[in-house]
Amino acid sequence: MTAHLNLSSFKSSGAASAMTGFGTPPLCTESYGSRRAQHYQPLPDGTLRCVPDRPEDQAYRSLRDVFMSVFLPQGYPESVSPDYLAYQIWDTVQAFASSITGTLATQAVLKGVGVGDETSTVAAATVTWILKDGTGMLGRILFAWSKGNKLDCDAKQWRLFADILNDVAILMEILAPAFPACFTLIVCISGFFKCIVGVAGGATRAALTMHQARRDNMADVSAKDGSQETLVNLAGLLCSLFLIPLVADNLHLTYALYALFTILHLYANYRAVRAVCMETLNQARLRLVLRHFLRWGKVPGPALANPKEPLLLGSQWQLKLILGAPLHTLVSSTADFQKALEGNSSNYLLFFNQAAGTVSVVLHQEAGSVDVIKACSHALILEVLLHQDVAASVVEGKSLLDLQRRLQEDPYKKDWTTLSEMQQLLDRIFPAFLTGLTSAGWITDRNLLGSEEWRVDWTMDGKKSL
User: Fold this and answer.
1) Environment class of residue 131 by beta-carbon count within 10 Å: exposed (0-12), middle (13-18) or buried (19+)?
2) Which residue from 114, 361, 404, 458 has the highest number of Cβ atoms inside 10 Å of its Cβ?
3) DSSP conformation class of 333
4) β-strand pairing of 320-323 with 358-363
5) Are residues 404 and 385 in contact, defined by beta-carbon separation less than 8 angstroms?
6) Do residues 51 and 26 make contact, with C-beta atoms less than 8 angstroms apart?
7) Cα distances (angstroms) measured from residue 321 to each of 163, 255, 326, 353, 356
8) Which residue in 82, 92, 86, 81 sits closest to 212, CA to CA?
9) Contacts of 397 (CB under 8 A, 6+ apart)
10) pLDDT of res. 353
11) What is d(CA 138, CA 194) in angstroms, rounded to the nearest whole number?
12) Alpha-carbon Rg for the chain in angstroms
């Protein structure tokens, strides 16, 4: 990290001289981030003397600086997000707990494959291990294929899911020796789960690292996170050396330790993901922000919205939203396509299927991040009208009540007029909402709303083709 020199701040010679204890003012001051400062004092013989702010603290600061340079990103705390320290503390606790329970599981699996049993064969143990690893590899591929594009959008939720699944897998391995007839099947399922954990945990860790890195230093943040985890795992291994002789032939103590450290592991993981304060909008955070805006007329900032974000998967939506849906799955006639285009001035088309509980959005070829946010907001307003009381809304309260009444009269009727009026309502309120998002500190030039890649160009020579 580049040190900073400041010459102008020492024109007031009296204060500077008192600070350094010399009769003449220092020529400049130098800082290393916000952690360390020192002054350069001219001496009578023409040389410069470097004087730290507090010389008596140098031994302590030297040890602290060595520790910070090894385990924290360069430039900490300015080079990372404000939530970095809280997250890393709890992440360290959960890693230690996971290391202990992992050791208990490893001991159980080794015992189950026949280590220490004279009647077991090397071939049988090898086959069991190969089946366990092979099943896990298959799980890794299938999970990455089915959920890989969703991990960025809900990184906190998937991170917590991965740690819960990891504890389930460890429990299965600890219990497996008690069921010798099903031992291979149990450890194979456990291996399958652990590889899912590896994919989900690694991908969400990358997403959180991208959030934490504030100076294009993602590699440094990731490397230091790995150093922290290695140190914690080393501490866990040292503790395991004392625990293993105690639990080797004591199942009750094994189960008790597993329960204790699993509770600690889950609690620390919850606190870690809850400490994360992300400024990009995913569907859950946009839902919270938009509902607050409709109710109170103000946009809450990331620090207010993130603590309210649900951390369990599948708990966000009452309507299923498909962003970037293919047009051929929604429109089967020219008349329907023309009705969808009528009065539409946005770079998306919204289709609502009340019977299926789905809102599908077709995105234009030129749709950007703000267009996707607007489309998702449109779908969220529809969800609010169908499932929430809008009587107390201060933003377009009368219009919202009128639209809600018409939707509830015949919810299964495809009323293009109602959808068109809803589009006009959104056109009126969205500019103020977008301004509020920017003012509150939300990032709008990119998002985590999870849109698919389908795009449609319904314009010809700059005009809509009807």
Assistant:
1) middle
2) 361
3) S
4) parallel
5) yes
6) yes
7) 27, 43, 13, 11, 11
8) 81
9) 390, 391
10) 83
11) 11
12) 29
| Single pTM value for the model | 0.83
Q: Where are the domains of the chain?
A: 4-71, 84-276, 281-464
Q: Give the CATH fold of the 84-276 domain.
A: Growth Hormone; Chain: A; (1.20.1250)
Rounded to whole angstroms, the Cα distance separating 263 from 271 reads: 12
Q: Which residues contact 149 (CB under 8 A, 6 or more apart)?
A: 450
Tokens of 174: 């600890």
Q: Which two tokens stand for residue 143?
A: 């999970």
Q: Annotate 232-289 with DSSP letters as a single string.
A: HHHHHHHHHHHHHHHHTT-HHHHHHHHHHHHHHHHHHHHHHHHH----EEEHHHHHHH
Please list the ranges in the chain whose pLDDT falls under 50. Answer: 1-2, 7-22, 462-466
Q: How many CB atoms lie within 10 A of CB 445?
A: 9
- Which tens digit of pLDDT belongs to each residue from 158-204? 999 999 999 999 999 999 888 888 888 998 999 999 999 999 999 99
74: tokens are 């360069």
At CA 100, angle to CA 98 and CA 105, rounded to 5?
90
Q: Please give the structure tokens belonging to residue 260.
A: 């204790």
Which segments of 26-78 does DSSP mark as H helices, in order? 58-71
Contact criterion met (CB below 8 Å) for 318 and 387: yes
Which tokens belong to 423? 């589009």
Cβ 232 vs Cβ 96: under 8 Å:
yes
User: What is residue 221's predicted lDDT score, i.e. its pLDDT?
Assistant: 94
**Residue 442: count of CB within 10 angstroms of its CB:** 23
Q: Using CA atoms, how far apart are residues 274 and 261, in angstroms rounded to an integer?
A: 20
**pLDDT per position as a tens digit, 256-271:** 999 999 999 999 999 9
Q: Coil, strand, or helix at residue 81?
A: coil
Query: Nearest-CA neighbor of 276 among 313, 302, 301?
Result: 302
Q: Which value, to the nearest 10 degrees, does the dihedral of the CA atoms of residues 147, 152, 157, 159 take?
A: 90
Helix (H, G, I), strand (E, B) or coil at 11: coil
Give me the amino acid identity at 46: G
Please state, in angstroms and rounded to a whole number, the distance separating the CA atoms of residues 76 and 96: 23
DSSP 456: B
Task: Quote the CA–CA distance of 322 and 277 in Å, as a whole number.
Answer: 26
